Amino acid sequence: MPEPLIFERSSPGRTAASLPKSEVPSKPVDSIVPSRFLRKDLPLPEVSELDVVRHFTRLSQKNVCIDTTFYPLGSCTMKYNPKVNEDAARLPGFTLIHPYQHESTVQGALQLMYELQQYLAEIAGMDAVTLQPAAGAHGELTGMLMVRAYHTERGDVDRRRVLIPDSAHGTNPATATMVGYKVQSIPSDARGNLDLDALRAAVGPDVAALMITIPSTFGLFDEHILEVIASVHEVGGLVYGDGANMNAMLGQARFGDLGVDVMHFNLHKTFTTPHGGGGPPAGPVAVKAHLAPYLPVPVVARRQLPDGSVEYYLDMDRPRSIGKIKAFYGNFGMMVRAYTYIRSLGAEGLEKVGEAAVLNANYLMQRLKAAYDLYVDRRCKHEFVLSGRRQRRSTGVRTLDIAKRLIDYGFHPPTIYFPIVVEEAIMIEPTETESLETLDQFADAMLAIAREAEENPDLVKQAPHTTEIGRLDEVAAVRRPNLRWKPE
Ligand SMILES: *Cc1c(COP(=O)(O)O)cnc(C)c1O
Asked: Residue 236 belongs to what domain range?
């Protein structure tokens, strides 16, 4: 029996509060609101406080989240969100400030933003950072607008193409297209690197940029990254580094040192701020000095006053800027969380994150590679890509079925059918925050499902068996979504 919903618990006259009788004479409601705006009835539930608390607590428990479940979502880094970040973000000095407040009254907030810019620049080996973009894709847009501004200012206006590996996240081609470029896809080679010959054939004087994800969305570090970047620079193009998932890079290798000109971070992936169910993420962008003049306004800056003291301020006086890309200054609460994370780990801690992310992913890959096909059998970075093609061919069990069956074992499924160039792809990113025990439980479940696919394929094809709702009609769910519950 499903739990009764809050409307079904309603009992006439029940309320969550009992207030003393008002001493102020009440006015008829239609003397305040014109009657044409009034409804005849409004069937709101009449419930006690306890009913309300239980209703919302129960709803919150229906949500699968990182605090309850291992969430090995490839290309989307779902790692633990440390609670100390939340404590910091809830400090009244941060939560009670207003975006229109005078700079002199928000020096602490500006200092935090300034220092976060510096830390991100240092971590990635870049020269300047904007914190404003509201997500990874928005960071890409910001970065590519700067690429366009750079070429345009140099009178280099015939650069029309942007090269993008076939393994890229879908946002990369979408961004390049929105900025007005023509996208050319570059294939990968058998080791999962960008195909160097194909790249060399594609570069030319009309190439504005290469957008490349590091490590790639196969979870691999391109073995020729320096040659790749040099071949784009040779023709005057810029290199955009997609750094959405850079756990494995922390303290190991820096985008700037590799030659990347512009890049974005996803604070809600690498830097432990919550993804938040569509809530506010943040996708700061870092650039080398030659792109710094184009950063969106305002840039958080620091100056020394005549009396020797230091002041932080919002620099709007940037004539070559691409302009404003976000209301106010970006998602500030996410900046506080990322800052807290970086400060609580320090340089040594961040380096260990990089090592543990790689160790965890390689451990899982080794445990699973006999039971599932591995896309490329070489050391991975933060994630790896399996293929369910063997299962599909021998038993008809698809990757989708394997993902659904994992729910029965208590795990959020990994990313599936992406990257699209891998047949029946299963893309697993364990992150550095999971213990050996959790990794083993997950590996055991994946191995058990591989056995089930052989012995009892229908069990897998009909999964999940433990949830309130089984398989959705996925087409109807998209075409005719039912997003609202209404009382009978
Ligand atoms: C997640 C991701 C993005 C997009 O980030 P959003 O915050 O979802 O817009 C871009 N590139 C890669 C490689 C990603 O994993």
From this structure: 83-344
